[in-house]
Amino acid sequence: MNSVQQETPAEIKAKAEAWFLRQCAISAQALGSSWPRHREWVEAHLKQEIRERLIARGWRPKK
Fold first, then answer.
1. Angle separating helix axes 35-56 and 9-31, nearest 10 degrees
2. Residue 34 has what DSSP assignment?
3. In which band, very low, low, confident or very high, does the pLDDT at 4 lie, cut at 50, 70 and 90?
4. pTM (2 decimals)?
């Protein structure tokens, strides 16, 4: 029997937020002094990535 435990929405949200913050930190370090100029579009891209991953897991976006 497969005993895969389902994650709660709160757990998934916490993991998504942690991933987002890690990716922002990595991007800020990689871009250095250019980070402020690129921050807006990088964050928008990361948020879209999270949205697409959640949709792939069966979540439906709010309208």
1. 150
2. G
3. low
4. 0.83
